[in-house]
Structure formats: C-alpha cells, structure tokens
Amino acid sequence: MTNIEKLLRIRPYPHMRVESDPANQVHWMYMHSQLAAGDRPCFRPGLMDDMWSFLNSITLREHQREPGRLRHVVVASDADAFNLGGDLALFAQLIRAGDREHLLSYARKCIDGVHHIHTGLGGDVRMIALLQGDALGGGFELALSCQTIVAEEGVQMGLPEVLFGLFPGMGAYSFLSKRVAPQLAERIILEGNLFTSEEMHAMGVVDVLVPKGQGEAAVEDLIRRQQRAPHAHIALNAVRGISQPVGYDELMGITEVWVDTALALGDRSLRTMDRIVKAQTRRSYTTKPDAVAL
To answer: Which pLDDT does position 43 carry in this prediction?
Structure first.
C-alpha cells in the first residue's frame, strides 16, 4: 500500500482521523488529531467514543466476512506521544466524589474497546499498534491488546500507576502475561518503571523495532507480508483465541478490582495524580507537523 493510496479516503472524527484504502482493507486510525496547546494525549471519553465508534462501524458480522479476506487496522497517533493513558484529572474528580458508577462506566468503556481489539474485531482483522511516541499506562495497555506492536527506537513505555498507589486495570496484566512470564509482568506493574522500546523489544513485548522515522514504512511492509498469507493470519487469530484467550469476563473482573482500589486511595495519592496532570499539561504535547489537518 503506497502513501497515495492510503490518502484516498479520509474520515473525520472530533478527536482522531482515519485514513482508509479504497477497498476498505486497511485503515489507519490516528489518535489526538489537532491536539490543542495544553491538551493531554490521554484516553479522554470523547477519544474513546470516536475510536470505538469507528471500530464498530467496520466490524463485520460472520456472514459478511469473505474467506481469505484479511483486513488491517493500524492504531497510531498524530501527537508526539502515542497515548499517556487514563484521564487522571477525571479519575481524581470521580474518586474525590466517591462516584463508583461513573468510574466503573469509564473502566467498562475501556474494556469494551481493548477486548474488541484483542479479538481482531471478530477475527478477520489484524490490529497493529504503531508507537512513534511514549505509551504509558492505558496507552501501553492499548498497544498490548493489539496483535502486533511496532515501535520506533527511543520510545518510552511502561505502567507507572503504582506511583499513586494504583495498578493498571484495563488489561495490562492479562495482555502482558501473554508476551512475558507472569512473574515479569507482575514486576513491571509493581515497580512502575519506564522502559525504552529497545528494552521492551529485548523482552519480547515489542514485536518490531525500527529506527526513528521508519515506523510507517515498517507497518506497510508488515501488512504486505501478512497479505501474502491471509488464510494463515486469520486462522492464527482463532488459534490465539483458543490457546491464549483473554476473556471479557476476566477483563471486567480485574477492572472492578481496579475501581474499588481507586476509590480507596487517600489524599496523598490524589495529590500525586494532580501533580502528574500538571506536569503533562506543562509539557504541552502537540500535533506532529506532518499530520494531515482536516
């Protein structure tokens, strides 16, 4: 797929942009399009609404799928970060209010999305995360839910939730344990350290590591290679679901533990959340200069 072909169809959303090839075979979904100064490239409810709405719109029912037709969705970012994770400002607000209903609603929306991604939108789609900027917390969980992670060198990723007394509750343990030993997954979660893409590649978490600026070309090459054996890759989606399942009930059970743990956090943890939000806001993440404006 050439870049010209990719730009033939552009679908606008308030918080992201989508580029699709003419055959609707490959879709590139860029989060954080036209990020305003001071905005944080995190999982705000509006972004999740856009993402899940688009993914649901291209999900085919079983009788609509054509044998041997393999589709791809690439999750990337228009900002200079992939995704910084959950909306900490919203979390702190809901925790202070003791609002379990809305915190659980946010968590459930996350689980609905990552589970749908992890199952390949029903089985005929290979999901690729393209990391050209930092992926933290829920942003890293999103990448882990995809079938393939392609990262450029120098990207940082990790699960820092332990810094404010919490743990990543939207699939991190389940997805990470499919890529590394459960003991290592637990250590990564509990230590809260950040790792470079080079380190994550050495661990086996990142599938494809490329020099900075070569991420999109690497993804296009990966798609071309997978399209040479579409039946095998569709079958592998099914095999993975049998051999290494991550069920919806498992994810929801874990995220309910996350909600109850979050609601038990004290003022010290909430002040730490506030400081992180302020630091992210001061950092002033922006839209990449080469991103297409709608």
So the answer is: 97
- Please check whether residue 85 lies inside any domain of the structure: yes
Assign 4 a pLDDT band (cuts: 50, 70, 90): very low
> What's the 3-state SS for 130-194?
EECCEEECHHHHHHHHCCEEEEECCCEEECHHHHHCCCCCCCHHHHHCCCCCHHHHHHHHHHCCE
- Distance between CA atoms of 75 and 168, rounded to whole angstroms? 20
Note whether residue 293 is domain-resident: no
Instruction: Find where tokens 């590591």 sit.
Output: 209
Query: 280 is written with which tokens?
Result: 């992210």
Render pLDDT for 216-249 as a digit per residue (tens, 0 to 9): 999 999 999 999 999 999 999 999 999 999 999 9
Rounded to whole angstroms, the Cα distance separating 126 from 128 reads 7
Are the C-beta atoms of 41 and 84 separated by less than 8 Å?
A: yes
What local confidence, expressed as pLDDT, does residue 294 receive? 39
pTM higher than the cut 0.70: yes
Domain of residue 217 covers 3-283
CATH code (residue 137):
3.90.226.10
**CA separation for the pair 127, 146 (Å, rounded):** 5
Residue range 87-118, pLDDT digits in tens: 999 999 999 999 999 999 999 999 999 999 99
* Mean pLDDT of the region 275-283: 91
In a domain, 47, yes or no: yes
Residue 114 near residue 167, CB atoms below 8 Å: no
Query: Is-contact 131 101, C-beta < 8 A?
Result: no
Q: Are 87 and 95 in contact (CB under 8 A)?
A: no
Residue 290 forms part of a structural domain? no
Structural domains in the chain (count): 1
